[in-house]
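Design job #97: recover the sequence.
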């Protein structure tokens, strides 16, 4: 009996993938000898399975994890949800304009404050804050500027992120008061006749953390790392950059964004002719400085959540995903932590009728290699959003368009994908994943997910195979 069951199991899968010659070639290629694939394609309207291979095997999803986070955020918070950052003061203002208290920047969990993605929305917001403070009549501050970063917990990064990721921009931590995507630009330059690398500058200008420079110039490829941890007072640069006459920008994370924005506002206030007695600080450093006696001066509201998730998925911004995890935890469990946010997300997934057995969530962005998701769960989520989700339009719109924008701008450029395929990509070392929607030549919309782990060779080689597999299904179904 056992042999019959095994035979039927193998037969069902062989029958499924025999529909695709491209998929057979993919599995037979030598680069796939050590790999594993989870793949599922289903009719987006009926849910009928069109193609299946290891659909229940949990693999590292990389950034396709953001589909789960963004869908949960849209459905539970709503596309019109916004975040607010409020500037005000504690204490009292005398008739002469002396503030006996502190200027407070009260963070509200905004992931996009000051982001270049939303430069038109925010403008020079710190200058506007300084101008509003001057309008109150304050002429002297006998306290300091304090960034209230207590909206979330003080654990900015997921516990199991890689050490090499945390100091780079895509590993930037989440703070109750984040700013400028919590990232900075370290400008370096090599010399054609030497391996020496010089640090030319750091932007924003107040980012003055001491950095030990161990960079070398070698070859023609970038292989550099920035090692800095949250709340650290310094770090170092390591690895290599290409030998060139041109300068190079290293995008790194900021160890303490709340303290940075407090310093920036401090300078803006002083530029308005207002004297401040003490150096800027944060609620984390001075928890007793934040009281209920707070008078608001001005408020900065974020873009709508639908705009934030659009950038999140198209540009695959880890920071935004992790912010939304903590926001869900705060709004639904009263705690702005990753653990509580992931609990809410898993509950959402379960409520969508998706079996959470074998789903392992360590973060909301997919940066952790300890996340585990299978193709079946991702496709079921895509089906749920299309057929039962309240905000499918916003969710669908947030996905990158094949060959046009976001992380798909350089891929799926074959005419068969044009104005046809929208999908979230996910990649890390030996991991390449996609999940989204496409329409076949016969007019049927499909939901699909393909996750490939532990392949040999280049990612580009794997992507070309995936493109051929999906192209064949589009043409033949």
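Job complete. Output follows.
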């Amino acid at each position: 009996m056992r042999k019959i069951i095994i035979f039927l199991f193998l037969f069902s899968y062989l029958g499924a993938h025999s529909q695709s010659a491209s998929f057979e070639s993919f599995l037979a290629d030598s680069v796939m000898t050590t790999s594993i694939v989870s793949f599922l394609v289903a009719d987006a309207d009926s849910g009928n399975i069109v193609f299946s291979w290891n659909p229940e095997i949990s693999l590292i999803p990389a950034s396709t994890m953001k589909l789960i986070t963004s869908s949960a955020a849209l459905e539970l918070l709503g596309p019109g949800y916004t975040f607010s950052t409020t500037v005000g003061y504690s204490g009292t203002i005398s008739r002469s304009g002396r503030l006996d208290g502190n200027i407070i920047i009260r963070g509200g969990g905004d992931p996009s404050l000051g982001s270049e993605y939303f430069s038109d929305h925010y403008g020079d917001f710190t200058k506007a804050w300084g101008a509003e403070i001057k309008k109150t009549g304050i002429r002297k501050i006998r306290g300091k500027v304090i960034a209230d970063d207590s909206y979330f917990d003080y654990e900015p990064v997921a516990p199991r992120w890689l050490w090499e990721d945390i100091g780079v921009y895509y590993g930037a931590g989440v703070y109750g008061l984040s700013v400028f995507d919590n990232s900075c630009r370290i400008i370096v330059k090599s010399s054609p006749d030497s391996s020496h690398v010089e640090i030319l500058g750091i932007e924003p200008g107040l980012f003055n953390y001491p950095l030990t420079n161990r960079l070398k110039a070698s070859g023609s490829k970038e292989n550099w790392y920035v090692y800095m941890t949250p709340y650290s007072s310094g770090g170092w640069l390591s690895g290599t950059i290409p030998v060139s006459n041109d300068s190079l920008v290293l995008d790194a994370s900021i160890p303490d964004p709340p303290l940075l924005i407090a310093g920036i506002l401090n300078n803006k206030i002083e530029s308005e002719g207002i004297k401040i007695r003490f150096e800027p600080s944060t609620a984390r450093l001075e928890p007793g400085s934040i009281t209920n006696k707070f008078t608001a001066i001005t408020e900065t509201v974020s873009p709508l959540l639908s705009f934030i998730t659009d950038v999140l998925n198209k540009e695959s911004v880890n920071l935004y995903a992790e912010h939304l995890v903590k926001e869900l935890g705060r709004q639904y469990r009263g705690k702005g932590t990753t653990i509580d946010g992931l609990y809410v997300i898993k509950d959402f997934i379960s409520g969508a009728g998706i079996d959470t057995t074998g789903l392992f969530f360590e973060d909301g962005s997919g940066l952790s290699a300890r996340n585990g998701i299978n193709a079946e769960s991702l496709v079921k989520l895509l089906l749920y959003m299309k057929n039962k989700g309240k905000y499918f339009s916003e969710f669908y719109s947030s996905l990158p368009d094949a060959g046009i924008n976001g992380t798909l701008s350089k891929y799926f450029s074959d005419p068969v994908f044009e104005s046809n395929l929208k999908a979230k990509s996910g990649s890390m070392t030996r991991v390449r994943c996609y999940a989204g929607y496409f329409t076949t030549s016969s007019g049927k919309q499909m939901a699909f997910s393909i996750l490939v782990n532990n392949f040999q060779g280049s990612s580009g080689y794997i992507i070309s195979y995936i493109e051929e597999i999906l192209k064949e299904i589009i043409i033949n179904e």
